[in-house]
Structures are given as structure tokens and as C-alpha cells.
Amino acid sequence: MVYEAVLLFAVGFIADWLFDTLTQSRSGLAHIAGRRIWLFAVFGVYFVYFWTHGGQTLPMKTWRIRLKWKDRDAVPKTVAVLRYFACWFFILTTTAIAHALALAPEVEAAALCAALVLPPLAMLIDPDKQFLHDRLLGTRLVNAPELEAALTK
To answer: Mean of the per-residue pLDDT values for the chain?
Structure first.
């Protein structure tokens, strides 16, 4: 996740620069709602593209992990889009609830930390060690066999 975050920082930096250029913003706080939606969409395009074209982002290639759908290597775009939204489900709902309830910043931060930590921990009780969103959508993170074979040569 850290490696993915480093790459996403670069993608987000360029996307944010483009947003500022197009909207002629002088501050990162200008058009904050539009900026968040824009970055959410850009990150979605990034993940959906790589998941549907080979099933791997660059960090996934490094760690020899591939996304598969059912027994097929190719992940359909609709499944990839649904997976992207499902990955964000707990964070988005937690943020929406915290905003609606006007929670104190420290309570909201604690709730967001829980929303980030609990879903990955849930995979520990899954018999196949899969995330909930993967279980629901029929996707799986698997070892990439061709990379394993190349490393053993």
C-alpha cells in the first residue's frame, strides 16, 4: 500500500496541477469539492485501467500480485469500477456520517482510522484471505505465476 501511495502521490500531483491550471485556482482550498471529485475520478481511472489491462498496477507487479475475476485473467471494466467504489465504501460512508453528525475532528479522525484498518483486518478471518469487496465481486488477488516462473530461472 505504501508503494501504491507513492505512485498515487505523483498521479495526484499531476492531476491537481491540471485541475489548478484549468480552474485557475490560486489555492489548494479553492473549489475543494470539485477537486476531491476530480482526484477521486483520476484515481479511479488509474486503478480501473491497470486492473482491466493485465490485472496489475506497477506496485502489484513488483509484489507479484494480480487481480483476477472468477477463473479469468481479464477483469471486465464494470467489475473493476465496482471494485474501486467498493474499496472506498467504508471511508466514504464514515466521512459522510461524520460530516452529517458534525463530529469533532478528533472523533472523525478516529472513525476514519477505523474505516481504514478494520476492512483489511476482516480478511484475516476470511478462509481464503480475501478482502470483503473481492469476495462480493468474485475478484481475487493471486500470485502472478509468470513472474514466479521468471524469478526461479
So the answer is: 88
